[in-house]
Design a protein that fits this description.
binds adenosine-5'-diphosphate, binds magnesium ion, 6-stranded parallel sheet, globular, 23 helices, alpha/beta, 7-stranded parallel sheet
Length: about 675
């Protein structure tokens, strides 16, 4: 730890260590997560339940008594505005009984009506520092608000925060942002709301600027590397596309032309392809892999699951193998792994498909011209860069079915170019979604029988594999009993993540071949599975799932030429949960859903907690701060481009940002 000569007591050092703060800047930028507004309240203006802040005079002594185990309640009478007599109650501060008649206090609490006040805190009346806008800091066990407040106060008194300014004046001026010192003083001790907003704007800008500087910096160093340009014959590509048997959508064509442009340029492709479930990303990937093949390079496609890898493999066998492309697949269930690995090792392949294990055990990335990942939501900046920095500088395409609007994608995947497929293939029949506020099959038995009577198949999704006290959800065997009792004479199978891949594949294959009417499954069917004859889906305990996840599931039943029927079952009585699930009833647009989901659950959750490798901003809000983001992004480019601005800012910022964002 380095606190630049400031003497700290061992206790304070321990506090900082516990909070993971290592230097002065860390202290200065340990921001409050909220503020309390403590303004003296006129008694007459109070309504029951309002927060109250009073100057008060003790007009009785305090009496204290215990109840339950270790609980105390202390009561005393106070006089407010020399006029109103209130009974004050404070819990679990046994020392409050030492308050005496005539003591003058500031009390902060809640007015309960009828002259009663529940006190949260009280202070000596001279303590002006507790009035105004008071910062509240995030805490850890054993650390109090005052511990942190005092350390920050000490540091602000000993140093000149001006010395910590990193952003060139001209950028601040052009956006009307205040300097670092004022911002830091005001974030900890806001002089008023206006000053607080100015501080927030400035510090958010700095946060985003650091993020984009790090990305731009890394990107810039990549831009200087030149990869071999890829040559391919557009006529051959055209013929290949003609073989699909459908006309590409406008957005598919646009994405393809962006990708082919990247392949043919000396800059490494580093692109995100976003499109809702069923928008036809696979066709785009096939074209990219084919162009890469025509240019004499090998390619790889990485899928998140066995089942999906197999589907991609089968698509390639249909479309690419007849053109002479050598296709290999390597995954957990590959029969003759040794032989496949040997082929891969000597380069006896053109395209390899596999789960992500592919790259840890088997394929050397060095010889690859193009790497595509499908649905690897957990692929953070670090993993992406690991691929990017390997050997021959492969072009990299990341496909995602979590459709995030372009503006947000810029903030989340700031280092990548983005292609978006928004238009759906015209013949998509869509889906009807129903929310049933009962977690039982009874209410929809008739509907489901109608689906089965037409020879269509149904998925039933359970939220839990096993019974558990923690998760109040019907587990897969409870669901199985219920379904079996309701649908007699139908073929029913079970699929879940604890089965071996062989078992899973076998069940999936039989379902695909129409041998089962009903498949009871956990979310293992979430991604990519493509059974055209399955048009019904029921989700038990739908409240246990995220919106994006449910939308993904719903995508499974929109693969054929019949309209899907999607039933959300839940016992929840929680209005906000019902409202959340209702989003799915109202829209089938993945972009709207992922925005709703992001707002409700936060980025980390939707894209896979923590492992997602997403940047997390302390103050910045990627939903609200579009203007600041845009400013920071363009300034980062300018700063990187303009050598004279590359002060110590860059070095420090990049070091920090790499720790913070690129994890
Ligand atoms: P996803 O984007 O979810 O990966 P897929 O690539 O699996 O979607 O495509 C879903 C289905 O739509 C596939 O059966 C595919 O053959 C079909 N498809 C893709 N593009 C088109 C199109 N332009 N017109 C008609 N069908 C298409
Ligand atoms: Mg797909």
């Amino acid at each position: 730890m380095s606190f630049e000569g400031i003497k700290l007591t061992p206790k304070r050092e321990a506090v900082l260590a516990a909070l993971g703060i290592e230097d002065i800047r860390g202290i200065l930028e340990y921001y409050p997560y909220r503020y309390e507004h403590n303004a003296i309240t006129p008694f007459k203006a109070l309504k029951n339940g309002d927060k109250a802040v009073f100057y008060a005079e003790m007009i009785s002594s305090a009496s204290s008594y215990r109840f339950r185990k270790n609980m105390t309640v202390t009561r005393f009478k106070i006089l407010v505005e020399d006029e109103y007599e209130l009974t004050a109650t404070i819990f679990n501060r046994p020392w409050a009984k030492m308050l005496k008649i005539n003591d003058r206090l500031i009390v902060i609490g809640r007015y309960e009506g009828e002259g009663k006040l529940t006190v949260m805190n009280y202070y000596d009346a001279k303590r002006q520092d507790v009035l105004g806008i008071i910062p509240v800091y995030p805490l850890k066990d054993g650390i109090g608000q005052n511990d942190i407040r005092k350390i920050i106060e000490l540091v602000l008194n000993k140093i000149d925060p001006d010395d910590y300014e990193q952003i060139p004046q001209k950028y601040l001026c052009s956006h009307g942002l205040i300097d670092y010192a004022s911002a830091i003083k005001n974030i900890h001790h806001p002089a008023g709301t206006q000053a607080l907003y100015q501080a927030l704007a400035r510090l958010k800008y700095e946060e985003f600027l650091r993020f984009y500087l790090a990305l731009e910096y890394m990107r810039g160093s990549d831009d200087q590397k030149h990869k071999p340009i890829k040559h391919f014959d557009p006529k051959q590509i055209k013929e290949f596309i003609a073989g699909f048997g459908f006309t590409l959508t406008k957005d598919q064509n646009q994405a393809i032309s962006e990708i082919l442009g990247d392949l043919a340029s000396p800059k490494m492709m580093y692109r995100l392809l976003e499109g809702d479930v069923g928008s036809g990303k696979t066709a785009v990937a096939l074209v990219a892999l084919y162009a890469n093949y025509l240019s004499g390079h090998k390619g790889a496609l990485m899928a998140p699951t066995e089942i999906l890898a197999v589907q991609h493999y089968e698509a390639m066998i249909v479309h690419l193998k007849p053109l002479g492309v050598r296709i290999k697949m390597l995954s957990g269930s590959t029969k003759d792994k040794k032989a496949v690995k040997a082929d891969l090792a000597v380069g006896d392949f053109d395209i390899v498909i596999g789960t992500h294990a592919l790259f840890y055990d088997g394929v050397s990335i060095d010889g690859l011209g193009l790497i595509i990942t499908d649905e690897q939501q957990r692929f953070g900046v670090k993993q992406r860069r690991m691929l990017k920095n390997k050997g021959e500088m492969p072009d990299f395409l990341m496909m995602s079915a979590t459709p995030i609007p372009r503006t947000l994608a810029g903030a989340i995947y700031g280092d990548m170019d983005v292609s978006i497929i928004e238009t759906m293939p015209a013949e998509r029949k869509g889906c009807d979604t129903y929310f049933i506020n009962h977690n039982r099959i009874k209410d929809i038995t008739k509907d489901l029988e109608a689906i089965l009577a037409e020879g269509q198949q149904i998925y039933i999704i359970a939220a839990a594999i096993n019974k558990s006290d923690l998760i109040k959800a019907k587990d897969i065997s409870a669901v199985f009993d219920e379904i079996q009792n309701t649908f007699r004479g139908y073929d029913i199978a079970i699929l879940h993540g604890r089965m071996s891949s062989e078992e899973k594949d076998e069940v999936m294959k039989r379902f695909n071949d129409g041998l089962y009417d009903i498949l009871i499954a956990t979310t293992v069917v979430e991604v990519g599975v493509n059974v055209k004859n399955a048009t019904g889906m029921v989700v038990f305990d739908a409240d246990r799932f995220g919106l994006s996840q449910l939308h993904q599931l719903r995508g499974r039943i929109q693969r054929g030429d019949k309209r899907g029927k999607f039933y959300l079952l839940s016992d929840t009585k929680e209005p906000s949960t019902i409202e959340r699930l209702w989003v799915l009833v109202q829209t089938n647009n993945g972009f709207e859903i992922s925005v709703a989901d992001l707002k409700l659950r936060g980025m980390g959750d939707i894209l896979g907690v923590r492992q997602s490798g997403l940047p997390s901003f302390v103050l910045g809000d990627i939903f609200k701060d579009h203007k600041i983001i845009a400013a920071a992004k363009s300034d980062a480019k300018a700063i990187i481009a303009d050598d004279s601005d590359k002060t110590k800012l860059l070095a420090e910022v990049i070091k920090k940002a790499q720790q913070n964002y690129i994890d």
